[in-house]
Amino acid sequence: MATPDSDKSRVLSGPPGAGSPRDNKRLALRLALVPLLAIGGVLIFQGLRDRLTLPDCDSDRAKRTLSDILKEFKYEPLRDQPIKTISTSKEQVVCNAVLREPDGSAIVIDYRFYWQGSTPTVQYSISRRAAAAPG
Hints:
The structure is a single chain. The chain has two domains: 18-52; 54-129, Nuclear Transport Factor 2, Chain: A, CATH 3.10.450. A hairpin with a 2-residue loop joins strand 3 and strand 4 (119-129). The N and C termini lie far apart (116 Å). The model has no long low-confidence stretch (mean pLDDT 78). With 135 residues, it is α+β, with helices and mostly antiparallel strands. It contains two helices and four strands.
């Protein structure tokens, strides 16, 4: 007597590893989507991070902000000038930069990033320090 399972037939799809063209397209689509999703996730994370944290003094974000401020006053943007972090906390980041002028004087920029409500804000002061007298 035949068991109920013995009447069933199986269809083999070919040698192992060979898939239908439809399965191959799905696999290719999945392989393409994985890197795109990873890149999208990184971009979203960076956008959220910019809204949730204050920039570090030497970050690209802070340097762009400082460069925009300097352009308003017709100063050259920072190139290789060191930027010092004076203090940092969740509430504010205090920074200092000094631009050396060809005549020996210096432009001193003190600035801080802080939260104004839920918006990161920058406050700055710019002063000029005369060149040291030759001695």
